[in-house]
Amino acid sequence: MSAATDRRPDGRIARFPHLRQDFAASLVVFLVALPLCVGVAVASGVPAELGLVTGIVGGIVTGMLRGSSLQVSGPAAGLTVLVFEAVREFGLPALGVIVLATGTLQLAMGALKLGRYFRAISVSVVEGMLAGIGLVLIASQLYAMAAAEAPESGLAKMAGLPGALTDAVGSTAAQASLAIGAGTVAVLVLWPRMPAKVRTVPGPLAAVGLATLAAVLLDAPVATVEVRGLLDSVQPPPLSAFGGLAGIGLLGTIVAFTLIASAESLFSAAAVDRLHDGPRTRYDQELMAQGVGNALCGVLGALPMTAVIVRSAANVQAGARTKASRVMHGVWLLLFAALLPDLLAYIPVPALAGVLVHAGAKLVPVRGLVLLWREHRGEALILVVTAVSIVTVSMFEGVLIGLALAVVKTAWEASHLRMEIVDKGAGPVQAHLSGNATFLRLPKILDSLESLPQDRPVELDLSGLHHLDHACRTALETWAERHSAAGTEPVKVTEPVRAAPPEKVTESATG
């Protein structure tokens, strides 16, 4: 019997047996998603309503598609920095082009069944990417909390923070803004320790709600969200914006959006699968679902979407059983945006900044890094280098540096080689090689062989090698010729043992 049907005690079939659980879960996810959608939009430098548009599309459209049953999609804090830089460099109209192209690439990759290969990306690179994003996000939102303008580069943001916070002390408006932002972070940190009945209200909603109430009651001189209206905010990209696709800069940004959004969505899917016992994620279909959502967001000129672990975990923990919960959460976002948009104008910007500072801190795996350093220092180094590169250089280049470092580390470990020299004082010198002989280990091999006595015969035993690449074979042959040319006996080489081909098995007609 399908998941959408079940049999009642009276024998009749219920079409939606889990509607009550999914309805309750959808309300929880809606309350979690609302402040995050608005906060991500404001931090990205776009109208707040565009964050709601992406949340609506992620819920109603992507939520109805196959892939992952309980994963929730919407605007993500992990893309905030990249979106802000793209809008600043190319303008808001180009954002729709970027997101539309991202969705198109995701659809193509899903159709080519490339979704599963994203799981092959080093976890350290992904965690380093998120950590770098988290650090830049924290730095930029601390400026917003202090009612100050953030510098453009990540390194400048970090360097200018002490001065910005010091300047805030001398301004009444900045002090009020900083107090509301800090209070929001404090509520988010303390909320998990509250009684269970209190925690039925999601932390982000409680923090923003309390901050809004305090700002209104105290008439605090802080900036609030600017409201333009849902229809006024939705601006499909004009045809002139597509001309930017001829530029390398815009194409590089599209590739960065695609890789980061896809990796974050599929890694989130793997994490969500560990939280429930329902159907497992079908990665290629999930990638296509994300592509459909991003393509539509691009047409509407909205923010890009990814699967979001915070909302997805809230969905599972609230008891969701089917994808109906995420679809209904999109409906609630649509109703709010259509009927109650003016409420957004009361939300203080520093409160949303506080929510994102807290979200950014969760992206930095401090405890995980300590454990990783103890057990796998190479992986910890990749994580740190990726994060630092994103902060000091840029998002795209930082991810590429992390991927390159992961490939080098893997190649180095795969070329594990052991060399043993046996010299009995008389007769030939024996050199035994075992493991994988690749060009990465070539300097070590040649140094050892060239240090052997020139006036003694050598027996080179390669039978213990699992792999001998062309560069090593050529170098060994050249060394053997030089050693033999010195007047000694020719070097005796024992070749690696080749695996026998598998025997053919002929199946009978009855099979």
Care to describe what's here?
This protein has 511 residues and is an alpha/beta fold. The protein has 2 domains: 394 residues, no CATH class; 78 residues, STAS domain (Transcription Regulator spoIIAA, 2-Layer Sandwich). It contains 19 helices and 8 strands. The strands form 3 sheets. Strands 5-6-7-8 form a 4-stranded mixed β-sheet, covered by helices on one side. β1 and β2 form a beta hairpin.
Distance between the termini: 34 Å
* Helix residue percentage: 55-70%
The whole-angstrom Rg is: 29 Å
Q: What's the main sheet like?
A: 4 strands, mixed
Strand content: 5-15%
Mean pLDDT rating: 85
Strand order across the largest sheet: 5-6-7-8
Q: SSE order in H/E notation?
A: EEHHEHHHHHHHHHEHHHHHHEEHEHE
Give a count of the beta strands, DSSP E runs of length 2 or more.
8
Uncertain regions: pLDDT < 50 for 5+ in a row? 1-5, 504-511
| Helix-strand category | alpha/beta
Protein name: Sulfate transporter
Region (Disordered): 483-511
InterPro entries: SLC26A/SulP_dom, SLC26A/SulP_fam
Domain SLC26A/SulP transporter: 19-386
What would a concise description of this structure say?
The protein is an alpha/beta fold and 511 residues long. It has 19 helices and eight strands.
